[in-house]
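User: Please run a holo structure prediction.
Assistant: Happy to. Please share the sequence and the ligand.
User: Here you go; the ligand is magnesium ion.
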Amino acid sequence: TCGFVAIVGRPNVGKSTLMNRILGQKVSITSRRPQTTRHQVMGIKTEDDAQFIYVDTPGMHIMSKDRNKAINHFMNQAATQALRDVDCVVFIIDRTRWSDEDQAVLKRLEHVKAPVILAVNKVDRLQDKATLLPWLSEVGARRDFAAIVPISAKHGTQVDTLEEEVAKYL
Ligand code: GDP
Ligand code: MG
């Protein structure tokens, strides 16, 4: 089986770190899109019985700034198009903060039919672990997520659990 997985989230939330962590040494393809300052990166991970194609989706965050620029329109179109055909979306947010940009990304996912898995990243930086559960239930109420997984992309914590959740939708 073969599955397309889109990794979405506002800038700096850890998309590239997660992708590198998941793909490890097994990166087959990386590609840059010229003409834009933002790169779309794609990677393939092959396991015994499955192949995952990960796409670090650009253009999801260009909601409010420079709305009128043609390039932004194009990027938004490309991002929307990319999400139409995926089997699964991994939506990454930070461990402590829900911003307008996160909200904007979530709004872009409104019409996505594929399951959306929420990855709450950077939990290694949590000061007080007790704040995590209430936070998860708060953000978890914003959409009917297929799963909610706290992770540390940087340290690899629970990334395997996230991958298991993704694998359910191939
Ligand atoms: P992107 O813009 O969403 O692709 O985010 P990046 O993957 O480039 O990460 C942005 C910053 O957050 C970088 O400095 C990363 O090292 C850092 N970062 C990403 N994941 C984690 C994590 O799990 N824990 C910590 N402490 N930092 C992280
Ligand atoms: Mg990135």
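The pocket of magnesium ion (ligand 2) is lined by residues 15-16, 56 (CB under 6 Å).
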